[in-house]
């Protein structure tokens, strides 16, 4: 047998209290046993580790639009470098801390080691080496001899691998394979390797003097800069301690040939910026132009070989360029990048440390504190739990009464807490069930009434004809056919409603002219309007194209027009209108008839509802026409509304979207 809710609440409160006491003890023990850490160790190895940490977290910020998930990267770097790493928001809120355990951590230094701001890194060199030499077993960066920097201020969009989608990476890999195949065909063996989303084409460059294989690495996310051939040739060193020999020149020529082959085999698009980079670049240039135009500073807009735009100082004005030019460029870059990179954060670094959860002398105090808090929590729960359970018991009783058929069961509700909202929801559900039950009973009664009248008429005429009271002539047959038609129309209406409720109402939308549909409806109902002494006209534009089901739309509009004619007195007018609005059209049926009382308007589209309650055939139909019309309009993803005043007529408005 399940325990009562009160007992479960009591156990839960005790568990929460115990957890709170343990957490408090952990925090207290941690804070008392942890000593404040010093500043960064001033040694070369420590500086190198800190530089690596800053670089890795900067890369993370550049490639993510937030810091969610950085905790895993922080702990990995802390394990590899042996450093305590903490990342906080500018206001000091901790984002990730490698020393954090069970929610507690040593106090952070008063001054951060650095600020990571991925959206504000203008003026830096490209973070990705454009080309490097790699010897087997050792790597020699070209940057040691030749510094490659971007011609414009650095931003993530300057790195072609930034913002690439999976599809774009696949395309880059295919292009890299084409380059490798091309190099193979030219006699320079090459292969493609992919690491961390970066595709690299590697050319085997023969042997060095010490016999190690020398390779030229061309990353797929780098650029082929002007003058690379000469730089590569210069970077091939002569034999140590000897003048430049013929062999040295041959090696330089061979390096130049390899470089030219690499340039010739580089397919278009291998280093093209990503779609996201282009989007950021467009936004950056737009912001820079707006800022410079507002400051009335002249600038030149150019486009680089990779297709990106850049705002530059006009030639000949470099010396007189105001500082605001660079401020505008920096501001535009930061604002354009902000949605795509992580927000600014502070980086704190320190020594890695551990702590003891509890000391032996503190165990007794911790146990006593836990016991006291648990007793207090149990007392509070006993006093307040009954009040919490009381409305739930009332809800249970009301639900049981509803199960037994008492749809009028309700629960009293006070307050605004969760239990009060549950009570309101229960009462709303009970009200809906009661209303649905009433409507069901009323619908059965209405269907029976609507079927009984024509059936009684048919039976009466047939019995009278059989007894010889009424001759079975053409007039009687016509009357019987009329009653049969009423039955058929009622059954068809009921079938349409059933299909609509089941979501099986078939629609065949196609491009139709609503003007033509409105004119066809007016033409079809004009004889009935003339017989009733009502003027029926159409006020429509020349063309109003929309995707609708022609037959269903004529049926819906015809129901509205038939109702308007029925309730408009002799001498009145009915106007069918079509007006374009927003992304669709308003189809209106306006009459100057008797109008509808305000209390009837909310129920006008209910089934079998008629404002005239006598249910006479001379003053009203079956009460299904407007309900069907509402379903048909909604099946076209439209809406229907009505406005009316007594003795002033009515306006039915159906909005239909242009495209279904």
From TrEMBL:
EC nos: 2.7.13.3
Catalyzed chemical reaction(s): ATP + protein L-histidine = ADP + protein N-phospho-L-histidine
Cell compartments where the protein resides: Cell membrane
Predominant subcellular localization, coarse grouping: membrane
UniProt cross-references to Pfam families, sorted A to Z: HAMP, HATPase_c, HisKA
Keywords annotated in UniProt: Kinase, Membrane, Phosphoprotein, Transferase, Transmembrane, Transmembrane helix, Two-component regulatory system
Group of enzyme by EC: transferase
Sequence ranges assigned to domain Histidine kinase in this UniProt record: 446-660
UniProt xrefs under InterPro entries: HAMP_dom, HATPase_C_sf, HATPase_dom, His_kinase_dom, HisK_dim/P_dom, HisK_dim/P_sf, Sig_transdc_His_kin-like_C
HAMP domain location: 386-438
GO molecular function annotation: phosphorelay sensor kinase activity
GO cellular component, one term: plasma membrane
Top-level taxon of origin: Bacteria
Protein's name in the database: histidine kinase
